[in-house]
Amino acid sequence: MQLDTSGIIGQSTTLADVFRILGKVAPTDSTVLVTGESGTGKELLVRALHANSSRAGKPFVPINCGAIPKELLESELFGHEKGAFTHAIRSRPGRFELADGGTIFLDEIGEMDLSLQVKILRVLQEKEIERVGGSGCKKVDVRIVAATNRNLEEEVAAGRFREDLYYRLNVIPLHLPPLRQRGGDVLLLAKHFLGAFCAKKRRAPLTLSTDASRVLIAYDWPGNVRELENFMERLSILVDGNTVRPEDLPPKILERVGTIEFLPAVKEDLAPLAAAIPVSPSATAPAPSSPQDIPAPGTGGFAWPTLDLLAERQTNLKDFLDAVEARLIDEAMLRAGGVKNQAAELLGIKRTTLIEKLKKRTVDGM
Q1: Average pLDDT, the chain
Q2: pLDDT tens digits for 102-120?
Q3: Nearest 10 degrees: CA dihedral of 41, 47, 51, 55?
Q4: Which of 16-25, 144-153, 231-240, 324-333 has the lowest mean pLDDT?
Q5: Cα–Cα distance measured from residue 73 to residue 119, given in angstroms and rounded to the nearest whole number
Q6: Which residues contact 115 (CB under 8 A, 6 or more apart)?
Q7: Confidence of residue 80 (pLDDT cuts 50, 70, 90)
Q8: Are 143 and 102 in contact (CB under 8 A)?
Q9: What is the pLDDT of residue 325?
Q10: In 3D, which of 197, 82, 98 has the Cα closest to residue 142?
Q11: Using an 8 Å Cβ cutoff, are 162 and 121 in contact?
Q12: pLDDT surpassing 70 at residue 175
């Protein structure tokens, strides 16, 4: 069954890794802890998790644990009985009861008071809740998904989060990468938001100039997708004409990225680099023994080596593969203007993997 990720836009390898885990965990009832910086779209990811689960036809009930005063949060979560406290003029079900059979999303759970954390732990262990002012327990069948922008391991060490609850929640960790690590997704999202806001405001579509695109992809977006979305709405209102140019961008962004002329060129097509390299299975061409001996794209194709030729050239499989990898990494870095995020996208690997490979080459070359 194809994964339903509607609402989540992106083609980066880092996002693909998230989708891969999502596809495995969604059909289960395992508890999931989603982490990521503010504005990365954690609720969209959790909604996709619910949509791809066996509970998709049941309620999805979100609650922001950081937006409700702690003295009211217990009642919101577990409900209350009539007369349980002042103004409790009637009994009222809580979010757990409303989510029965479905999914409850505890957003910003790192903000929750320690006394309430104990009660959430009980729900996870016993699958039952007790209303405020109630005298008995009620069984609930809910899948709990939590999210936070805090480092809960640090919160546990500081005594602000219960260790037992952390391990109960962290059965399946899902980390949503920040926008600055998603390469070309910045422009995909920018164009999507810009088109949507222009249509909503009934104005002619806006396009991004080449230089404006270079600035947007070079900016680090500390507010992540939420910041980008709000910024595109601003442009849809304030920009005259049909093209967004660097002069339409705020000084804060321009100052942060530096001189536009020095920014890397934007590659609209992030297709795998291998697709651009012609391959011809030749059994007689000489085998390369160094990066310099490997044919460049467009100069006669790539020649497959044979074991006899490897022996003749006094090389081996590891050295040959290292040479191929080095050439491809060098070309990717050149195409991306030295920007590791974009180079990793071109190669179809994680940014951290590319950094490790570059570090290894530096150490080996010392």
Answers
A1: 85
A2: 999 999 999 999 999 999 9
A3: 150
A4: 324-333
A5: 12
A6: none
A7: confident
A8: yes
A9: 83
A10: 98
A11: yes
A12: yes
Q: Give the H or E element holding residue 64.
A: strand 60-64
Three-state SS at 32: strand
Q: Which residue has the tokens 């989708």?
A: 19
Q: What is the pLDDT of residue 298?
A: 43
pTM score, two decimals? Answer: 0.71
Which residues 6+ apart lie within 8 Å of 343 measured at CB? 329, 332, 333, 335, 336, 354
How does strand 103-107 pair with strand 143-148? parallel
Residue length, the chain? 366
167, amino acid identity: Y
CB burial of 166-198 (b: ≥16 within 10 Å; e: otherwise) equals bebbeebebebbbbbbbbbbbbbbbbebbeebb
How would you class 88 by CB atoms within 10 Å of its CB: exposed for 0-12, middle for 13-18, buried for 19 or more?
middle
CA dihedral 307, 312, 318, 321 (to 10 degrees): -80
Q: Which two tokens stand for residue 244?
A: 């967004």
Identify the pLDDT of residue 348: 86
Sorted by sequence, the CB contacts under 8 Å of residue 346 that are 6+ apart come out as 267, 270, 272, 273, 332, 335, 336
Query: Can you give 40-63 as a three-state secondary structure string?
Result: CCHHHHHHHHHHCCCCCCCCEEEE
pLDDT at 274 exceeding the cut of 50:
no
Q: Please determine, for residue 231, whether its predicted confidence score (pLDDT) is greater than 60.
A: yes
